[in-house]
């Protein structure tokens, strides 16, 4: 119960600028108080039970003292026992009563420990369908980057009633750039999630260099891929540490500098007062959108991935930042198999293949020049909408 209230407080503090800009401080406080009502009622009830229990246990202890002395004195007076025997019995009863009273006061703590242990064991006993720590599976000596999605059908486990893909097939050739376009929610980003094996398809298969990715070692598979997403997550550490994070093991200074140069990031990083030792702040708050994106690109490059996954990598940027980031991406995409998810024409028009995703499948496929000239085509209508929105 307290966890929900803590989550509200955590979100409010973490997004204090948003809260302040909407003058929502009072709303957050009301929401926090509302979330605390349940724990408060439970706490009062527990307090009353614990207090009464504690009082009763001590009352019993002193009542046992009184009863022991009373009956002991009576028996000594009647000559049925001796003074020393009375004290032997008294201490035996006293120690027993004290043990009972102390154990009763520990009952709430034992209940908490029991529920905590049960939740921990439930987590430990839970087996993941796709376990990243599993070292079984094949690894390839060299990766060409030939990807095939064959008759893929897929629904998200949390939304089993929504069919995302119906018999989707797509070939992505080695060293080529394939752009996925389509309306929001059509499943473009889902393709990237399936390639990284965050999910497995319900039917059909995905292969890398002719081998199904389920047969490959998961950790090795993800090491072959570099991801740059729309909202890159940077850790509250130095720029150097955030770039080095992309490579398993320790990245050398030369590798970090080379990745930064390729990502168009070295110039702006060198211009910072502390250079590569600059702290980026929580979620990279100290850097602008374009700077964060270039650090994320450098992080993806530092492990020299054979496959590059770009999920709306420039959609949140202004025109100038987009130009710089797109220039960095164009450098990085050379001789790499690249899957691009994007809306902007500038990002996708130079792709080797543009695949239009609609109704759970690929409805059009080809180069920009070919698709744009298809009268009544889905891609042509998407470009026309984009152009009219831009103007």
TrEMBL record:
GO biological process, one term: oligopeptide export from mitochondrion
Compartments in which it is found: Cell membrane
Domain called ABC transmembrane type-1: residue spans: 1-112
Entry GO CC: mitochondrial inner membrane; plasma membrane
Metal-binding keyword on record: no
Primary residence: membrane
Keyword annotations from UniProtKB, A to Z: ATP-binding, Glycoprotein, Membrane, Nucleotide-binding, Repeat, Transmembrane, Transmembrane helix, Transport
Gene3D superfamilies: ABC transporter type 1, transmembrane domain, P-loop containing nucleotide triphosphate hydrolases
Protein name: ABC transporter B family member protein
Organism phylogeny: Eukaryota, Viridiplantae, Streptophyta, Embryophyta, Tracheophyta
């Amino acid at each position: 119960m307290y966890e929900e209230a803590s989550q509200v407080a955590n979100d409010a503090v973490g997004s204090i600028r948003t809260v302040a800009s909407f003058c929502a401080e009072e709303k957050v406080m009301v929401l926090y108080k509302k979330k605390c009502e349940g724990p408060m009622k439970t706490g009062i009830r527990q307090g009353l039970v614990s207090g009464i229990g504690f009082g009763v246990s001590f009352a019993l202890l002193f009542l046992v003292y009184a009863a022991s002395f009373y009956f002991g004195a009576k028996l000594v007076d009647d000559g049925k026992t001796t003074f020393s025997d009375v004290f032997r019995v008294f201490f035996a009863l006293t120690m027993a009563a004290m043990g009972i009273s102390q154990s009763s006061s520990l009952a709430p703590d034992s209940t908490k420990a029991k529920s905590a242990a049960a939740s921990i064991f439930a987590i430990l006993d839970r087996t993941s369908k796709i376990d990243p720590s599993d070292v079984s599976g094949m690894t390839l000596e060299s990766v060409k980057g030939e990807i095939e999605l064959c008759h893929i059908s897929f629904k998200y486990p949390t939304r089993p009633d929504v069919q995302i893909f119906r018999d989707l097939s797509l070939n992505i050739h080695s060293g080529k750039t394939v752009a996925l376009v389509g309306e929001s929610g059509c499943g473009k980003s889902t393709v990237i999630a399936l390639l990284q094996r965050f999910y497995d398809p319900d039917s059909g298969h995905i292969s890398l260099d002719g081998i199904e990715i389920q047969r490959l070692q998961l950790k090795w598979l993800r090491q072959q891929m570099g991801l740059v997403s729309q909202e890159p997550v940077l850790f509250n550490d130095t720029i150097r540490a955030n770039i080095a994070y992309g490579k398993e093991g320790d990245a050398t200074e030369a590798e970090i500098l080379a990745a930064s140069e390729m990502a168009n990031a070295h110039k702006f990083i060198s211009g910072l007062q502390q250079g590569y030792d600059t702290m980026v702040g929580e979620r990279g708050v100290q850097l602008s959108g374009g700077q964060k994106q270039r650090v994320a690109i450098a992080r993806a490059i530092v492990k020299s991935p054979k496959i590059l996954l770009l999920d709306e990598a420039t959609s949140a940027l202004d025109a100038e930042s987009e130009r710089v980031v797109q220039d960095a991406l164009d450098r990085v995409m050379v001789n790499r198999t690249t899957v691009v998810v994007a809306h902007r024409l500038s990002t996708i028009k130079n792709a080797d293949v543009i695949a239009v995703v609609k109704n759970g499948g690929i409805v059009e496929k080809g180069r920009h020049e070919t698709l744009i000239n298809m009268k009544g085509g889905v891609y042509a209508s998407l470009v026309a909408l984009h152009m009219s929105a831009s103007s």
